[in-house]
């Protein structure tokens, strides 16, 4: 079984490959995502949402990963086709039995909606 850090590494590797379907392997069936742009529940709806997001993502540059037991905090630059500069983003995930159960994204959404 993957450690929480390995789980979230696999999650972001899927982002970098633009492979939303591969994320089913690291998301719990009842995963809940919360962020400035919305709330999504369940693996199917999360994968569907990630398909949309990954269509505008050009790169993910991981700056730092911190782990404390089942919680993993990933700080990264999110590069998109919709923004001139990368968006500094923090992703806080709670991982249970090798799958992310909750994910919270924290970033300033103004470049995307403004």
Please explain how this structure is put together.
The chain has one domain (4-106): Nuclear Transport Factor 2, Chain: A (Roll). The protein contains three helices and six strands; from the N terminus they run H-E-E-H-E-E-E-E-H. It has helices at residues 4-16, 43-54, 110-113, and strands at 27-35, 38-41, 57-68, 71-80, 87-96, 99-106. A six-stranded mixed sheet has the order 2-1-6-5-4-3, covered by helices on one side. It starts with a helix and ends with a helix. InterPro entries: NTF2-like_dom_sf, SnoaL-like.
* Strands side by side in the biggest sheet: 2-1-6-5-4-3
Shape by Cα distribution: globular
Give the averaged pLDDT, no decimals.
95
What is the helical fraction, as a range of percent? Answer: 25-40%
CATH topology: Nuclear Transport Factor 2, Chain: A
Unreliable segments of 5+ consecutive residues:
none
List SSEs in N-to-C order: HEEHEEEEH
Organism: Actinomycetospora succinea
Domain SnoaL-like: 9-96
Pfam family, one: SnoaL_2
Protein name: SnoaL-like protein
List the helices and strands and how they pair.
Elements: H1 4-16, E1 27-35, E2 38-41, H2 43-54, E3 57-68, E4 71-80, E5 87-96, E6 99-106, H3 110-113
What would the keywords be for this entry?
alpha+beta; 114 residues; Nuclear Transport Factor 2, Chain: A
In short:
The chain has one domain (4-106): Nuclear Transport Factor 2, Chain: A. It is built from three helices and six strands. It has helices at 4-16, 43-54, 110-113, and strands at 27-35, 38-41, 57-68, 71-80, 87-96, 99-106.
């Amino acid at each position: 079984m993957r450690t929480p850090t390995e789980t979230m590494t696999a999650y972001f590797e899927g982002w970098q490959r633009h492979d939303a379907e591969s994320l089913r392997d690291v998301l719990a069936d009842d995963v809940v995502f919360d962020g400035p742009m919305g709330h999504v529940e369940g693996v199917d709806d999360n994968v569907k949402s990630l398909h949309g997001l990954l269509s505008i993502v050009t790169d993910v540059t991981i700056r730092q990963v911190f782990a404390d037991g089942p919680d993993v905090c990933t700080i990264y630059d999110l590069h998109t086709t919709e923004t001139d500069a990368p968006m500094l983003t923090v992703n806080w995930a709670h991982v249970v039995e090798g799958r992310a159960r909750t994910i919270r994204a924290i970033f300033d959404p103004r470049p995307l909606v403004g």
